[in-house]
Each structure stands twice: as C-alpha cells, then as structure tokens.
Amino acid sequence: MKIKFESGLEHQQDAVEAIVDIFRGQEVCTSNFTVFSPDYLNKQATTFQNELGYANKLEINGAQIIDNAQKVQLKNGLRPSLANEIDIKNLDFSIEMETGTGKTYVYLKTVMELQKQYGFKKFIIVVPSIPIKEGVYKSLQMTMEHFNEHYPEAIYNEKSFFVYDSSNLSSVRDFAINDQLQIMVINIQAFAKDIDETATKTNRILLDYNDKLGYKPISLLQNTRPFVIVDEPQSTMSSVLQKKSIKNLHPLAVFRYSATHTEKINLMYKLDAVDAYNQQLVKQIEVASIQVDGGASNGAYIKLLSIQNKNSISAKVEIDCKSKDGKAKREIKEVKQNTDFLQLTKLPQYADYFLKDIYVGDEYIEFTNGTEINLGHSIGAVDDNMIKRYQIRKTIEEHLDKEIRLNPKGIKVLSLFFIDSVKHYRVYDEEGNAQNGDYATIFEEEYKKLIKSRKYQTLFNEVKDLDSEVSAIHNGYFSIDKQSKASNKKDKFEYFKDTSGSVKADEDTYNLIMKEKEKLLSFDSKLRFIFSHSALKEGWDNPNVFQICTLKEAGSSEVRRRQEIGRGLRLAVNQEGQREYGFDINTLTVMASESYEEFVDELQKEIEKETGIKFGVLQEHSFSNIVVSMNGNDPEYLGHHKSEEVFNYFLLKGYINNKGKIQDVLKEDLKAGTVDLGQEFEKHIEEQIIKEITRTAGKLEVKDNSKKEIVQLNKQVFLSPEFKSLWDKVKFKTTYSVDFKSEKLILECIKNINNRLVVNGGKLSYDKVKLDITEGGISFKEPKTNYDVVKQEVSVLPDIISYLQNETRLTRKSIVEILQGCDNLSYFKINPQKYIEGCIDIINEQMRLHIVDGIVYKRIGENDFYSQELFENEELSGYLKSNMIESSKSPFEYTIYDSGIEKDLSREFEKSNNVKVYTKLPDWFKIETPLGNYNPDWAVLFEIEGKEQLYFVVESKGTLGYDFLRPSEQGKIDCGKKHFEELANTTNSNIKLELVTNGSDFIDLALSKL
Length: 1010
Description:
There is one protein chain. By secondary structure, the chain is of the alpha/beta class. The chain has 6 domains: 10-275, P-loop containing nucleotide triphosphate hydrolases (Rossmann fold); 300-379, no CATH class; 384-611, no CATH class; 627-697, no CATH class; 710-736 and 859-1008, Trna Endonuclease, Chain: A, domain 1 (3-Layer(aba) Sandwich); 741-830, no CATH class. It has 32 helices and 41 strands. The strands form 12 sheets. Strands 10, 18, 21, 24, 25, 26, 31, 32 and 33 form a 9-stranded mixed beta sheet that branches. A 7-stranded parallel beta sheet has the order 5-6-4-7-8-3-9, sandwiched between helices. Strand 27 (627-631) and strand 28 form a beta hairpin. The longest helix is centred in the middle third of the chain and has 23 residues, at 384-406. The relative contact order is 0.08.
C-alpha cells in the first residue's frame, strides 16, 4: 500500500506560492564555480583537472523582492514587512502551518517549483532532531513518484537527495558538482557540532580541510549558495551556535517552516490551529477524561507535588481537607517541617501524620510514623494500576467502536500507547526469554473480555485462536540493545531498552517506525495497537492514529498536550492510500490524565504560548486582505492602511482594549447588527469586515443585549405609610428554644441510615467532550459521561465514633447506639470518609427535624429589629431585559428576580390593585433556625376595597409545592412560620408566612383569608 499525494490542495498551494512569488521576475539561470580535483590540489598530479560546480544565482534586485514579498503578505492577510525588515543580503522568510496539514510536502513542492520556475537547484533542509530527519528522508522517498509525475522535466531520483553523514563527505562534493536538483538533509546537532570553531579536532569536520575532497567541506556548500529550509526553527535555530551554523552556509535565502514559531521573521503565510480546524484539514479532537470521584481513598491521602527552598524549605502536597460543609475536599496545601496534618485537615485519618522532615536534595518527605513519600508519588490513593487498567480498557473500546464504523470504508484504525518505561510492556529473564509487562498483560486481559461483547461480534466472527490473535494485534516500538545470557556470556539476546529519544540507538527505531508507516495502514498487517516509549513521541505521525493514550507513571514529567495531540492530527487514509475528509471520519480521541476542563484550559494556554495566537483578539492588519474589487484576474485588497483605520476606531470606541481584545460592547453590537465601523464601506466590504469580527469574537456571550443598570431607591414607596406599616410587622428579631427526646432521635437516625445511606468505593467517571476551536477560543459542549465503581477495600480505618461525636455533638453513648443499630456498617470499610459524611448528614438532619417539632420562638424586645434605613445602603444592579422589571410598588425602581416564579410573582404584585406595597426581602433579612439562617422571599401588603389589610411574608418554591421540598427546606419554612406567629401575637397583627407556587396562587390564597 502506498499513500497517494494530492497536488491541488488550496492551502498547500497558497503556502507554496507564498515563497515562490517572492522571486517573481527572476529569470531561469545558474552560476558556475570551479571544483578542483583532490589529486591536483594535494599535488599528487601535475595535470590541471577540474569540474564545474553549480550554484543558485539571484538576478532580481532587492526592491523587487521587497515589493513581491509585501504583495504576498497582503494577499494572505498578514502585516506587510517594512522595507528595513527584509535584509536583502540575508533573506529570511517564515511559513506557519499547523501540525498535520502537510508542512513537509509543502516545502518539498516549493523546492520543485523554485527549480521549475527559476532554475534553483541547491537546497539544504536543516531539521532539529533524529526523528524529524528520518521523517523528512522518508517523505522524500514517498513523494518521488508523485513529483516525477507532476514535474516530468526535472531529473529527480534517489540520487537527488541524501542525508548528511560526517563519515561519508563525498556526498558533499557530489552536491556541489551535480547540475541537477540536489537536496541535502542534515540534523542541526550534527551540523552545529561539525562547524563549531571552538570544538576539538575530531568535531570540526565541516570546517577543516579534507584530503579526499581537496576542500573544506563547508566551502563546497557555501559556493553553491543554497536555499536553506529550516524545519521547526524554534528548535533548529534556538541557540547562537545554531544560527551561526546556518548563516555559515552563505544561503541565498532561509525559509523557516513551523506550527510554533518563536520568531516570525517576515511571515509570508499562516495556517494556524484555528484555520486548520475550521477548514477540517486536521482531525477533530475529542478529549476523554478519567477521574476518580466520590472521595475514594485508602486511609490518609497525601501526594507530594513539589519541594522548594527559596526562603525556607517547604513542600506542596495534595490532601483531603474538611470543608465548610463538613465534607472532605481535595486541596493543595503548602507545608513545612512539624506540620500536624490532623490540625491541617481536620480529618481523623490524618491523626498519625506529623511531618518530621523535608529532604530537598533527595526530593521526599518523612513523617514521624515512618511514612516516606517521594516527589510525584502518593499514599492512600486509588490503586494506580486500576486507573491504568481503565485507561487501557476505554482506549480499546474507543478503538473497536471506530473499527465498526471505519472498517467498511477501508480505513484501518490504529491506537497509540505512550509509556515511560519499557518494563511495563516487556520484561526478560536471564536467558532473554521475553514476557509481557504489566501493561501488556492488562491490555490482553481487557481485550479478550471486550471482544466477547455482542456489540463487537461483527469484528470477530472468524477468530479461532484467541491467544494468538491477541498477541498479533499489539507490538512495541522501542530502541534495542544486546545483553549476554546468564548461561553463556558469549551468547547474546536483544531486548527493548529505555532511551531519551535522541541517542544513536533511537535512529534505528525511528527508521523502523518510518519504514513500517505504510505497512501499518494496510489490513494485511494485523497490528493495530502500538506501544512506544514516551521519549519517541516526536517520531510518530501515522495518519490513521485515532486514539492516543499516555500511561504516565507517578512522578513523571508533565505531558505537553499540544505535542501529544500532534501525533494524531493527520487526516486518515484508506486502503487505496487516499486521504479521507470530514470530522465524521476524522476524530482523534485523547485519553487525558486530568479533567477535560483542565486539559482544554492548559491546551489553550499552550497554543497561545507556542503559536502566538491571541484568542478573541483583533490586529491592525485583520481586515487588510479583504477583497474590495477585481482588476481582471488580480484582486484589489482593502490594504493595511484602511485596516489600521478600522482598528484604531474600534480602540477609540471601546470595542477593543489596547491589546485588541474584543469587548462585550462589540459583541452586543454584533448580535444586534449595529456595529459602527467609523466610515462608509460598500456593502460587500462591510459584510466581509463583520464576518471577520464575528469569527474572531467567538461566542457572543452577552446578557440578551441588555445594559447593566444600577437600581435606585423608589423614595415615594419607601417613605410611604403603607410600606412603613408593612415593615413594622416583619422587622423584629426572635430567639428560639427547643425540647426533644433522644430515644426517638436515635431510632429515626438508625432507620434513615439503613434505608437511605448507600456508599461505594467512589466512582470512576469517563467524560468525553469534542473540542470546538475558533478565533474566540477553545470550547466544548456538555460532556458525555459514563461511570464505573472503584472496587477496593480500605486497610486503615479512622475513629468513626469520635468523629461523629465531634461533628454532631451527640454523646458517645448515643453514637454507639446508632452504629450498633446500623446494618450497612460494611460500607464503612469500602469508603470510610463517605460513610462518615453520610452518617453526619443524616444524624444532623434528624436532629434538626426533631428540634423543629419542639421549637418555640420568642421576640427579643422592642429595640432588636432590622431597621428600614438598611434599604438605603442596599446596592442593586441587573439587566433590563433579563432579570429585572420596572416597579411602582416596591422600595426600588426595579425588582430583580432570580427565577421564573419570582418574575411571575412580581408581575402579579404590580398588576393587582389589591397589592398596595411589596418588597423582595434583602439578603440581610435573616431568621435564625436550627437548620441555618432562613431568608424568605417577599413581604406583601394586601388590601380589600380599602378596608381590610392583610400582611404576608411569601415563600416562592416552584410548581411542586411543600411536599416536594427537601426536609431541610421544609424545616426552615416551618421555623419561619413559628417566627411570624410569634410576631403576629406580639404586634397584634395578622402577619403570616405562606408558601405559593405562582402569582395567581398568591391572589387566590390572599382572598381565601378574608
């Protein structure tokens, strides 16, 4: 099977033309120089012998190059370079292309076009690493037939390109004297080392005179005036030596290609992550997150995150802490020597954890109980192998689900597992016999289970030997070494070994990966699941990778999310070698080792940092390439000057801030269709400008096109006798006392714990979200979630009796009686913290309900009340069209509502002539109850025919009514009723608390009281 290349893809053609058009006006020409024979130069022959060397030659002048470059930039919507930014003696241009969009193909096609149109023949491709070097060389081989078909006039064969090898410098001479297209690929590490003037003799290969060549190798390269293509310049040209090495080639021009430039020198074309996604030139990204929910832990959970000794020695740890609501919550805390973790967490499982010492050099902490925790490691966590098993299982599931859809389309699905250590995949005994490591074992176990599912039977109808089938579908790509057998030291066996990704042993591995790239795409190969070392990530770019799972070890370095995604972004190919398009086929599932929210947030930060993309930001040149008219076949553009005028007007109007960030006021005008551009444009131009703004703005998340308003006091109502009368009925404070029987409470606690409390070992949640990448940022819709249960029994149990006693204030005797009556105490061993928390909630709830039954309220006195003047200090604001209505009967000019029922009630209050005044009770109006402070919703004065007045405090609770409220809400309302009964008795009024479900319900209720 061979991958077929497409020559007419618009984005690739635009990128090629962006460089080729810089030299528009250049005639086809070459330059010659003399290359003497080594024998003549070494005076081993007296006959004058020489050969011609062939060099690139530039004929057009600097002014023409600058003009050409600026036109290209304008066409591509980029800021035109200033004349002094283009150094004619050191031409340097950049192309930005997102990973997976064909960057290598583009610069190889650019080479072919430069040769065809202008006769340029000498090119050097400088790459940052071994895997990219191997990848470029493989691309040269794979595209040879394709380019020969499209450029038949060129002599382009296996002798047209080579990889620089310091042990075979004759290829450098051949590069100089060949009169046809020549492409040299060189790794910057080898290159920079070989021309380092300060290096030792053995490392000055390109600089020193070579007898076999008769020249310094660098001189031969310099004389050709090559075009230098720099792949990934942020790595290839990151040091002074590297930049000097490239300049030392005397290039006619340097072309930089990357998705993540750190220096954008004369940017000629840009296809960033947003453009690539919107044009569906890469796979859609789906993030799958596996998280442990439900407070699952095995005793005291402590994870050591970092150690620092700037001012004093301290450590950051992740631990469970008691939160305000009494629940255990995972938090990050900074700790020092002698920290008492029981005091820090307020949780009983930490009773034995007193920090003895923090070891900076060795990176671990020690407790007085002898427990030691290394950096990145933890105690008390859910078993890490269980998480790894779940990650592997879900990766297999995702893989098989895609096979059901894609196999019939002739698309082979591949999954990639990156691991930190070879031992997890393959282990060897002393004789070299290989066995599965723990990850490989887990993989085979889970795969065998899953393929028995009815769902996947269509994929496995013909499987006869399950063991051989499973062993054939996965394999490892690791660097190989040799070791002597124990029985015979002379007899050696090969084994997989851990490497850094940049050593000599890795070259063979990268070679194998590239060599088998097309083989893996064919159904003829059973291999579908690939395990490789995380250090080898850079070498993987197979287009049919649909799942990537990185199985991180505790303490391993953080995975760069953008790099991880980059391994699977390329569009898939079918069995004919043809690209398949569309997100319905091309979706990459990435198994994240963090929550999907964290993954997306960090991914956006990485994209902004590495690419310079500023989400939601306009720039001075944002509108420069808008087409205003056509001059024949040549478009006329709006241009940088006009674009800058619009940008500056937006800045003046407050549409954007000084960094170009789009503000809400512009989003509001976009939504309303009232954007002010500051000048008149023809309709088609205006539409294009608005389209560009909308694309950059992203989601128009504004408050229903409303303006935020500060709500003023309505003094006519506030100072009225009616409002004063209403307030005087509700303003007084009370205190309460209670009386209940403990025997009944204990029985109710036992009954409710047995009937209601269900605890598992925590949940494994599997959340999947598809990312939407726009100029406005990265977003996602609500996740699709599946749950599984954490199955493990805790070995260290906290003191449940003491903890319950402290949290409920019941006697130890009562706690023991309750626990003795519980028939679900086995849950305590599965998840102690959750069981304890559940018991606390139920006991406290029952205590409150029993207290409510026996509660008695007493008004405190004449002078203890909520003053009416407090309304004058109230600061209210809202949105006219979303959460407030105009009011003529409340103490404020507008009433702010929080729900549909509150909106309905306030409208009914305004409409009904019977309602004289009303108020939404402020947050500071609180009634104390055993269940917590209670804040009723409304106070209303209701009048019939100017005679009888009724005073109400109204609680609005949706359409379901009292019986459907939580017990704690019911209890608060009951307490509120007793509070107002006390006020009615002591103020000689008819004030009463009522629960209503809508405005009509209130009117009916009020009339029924007459």
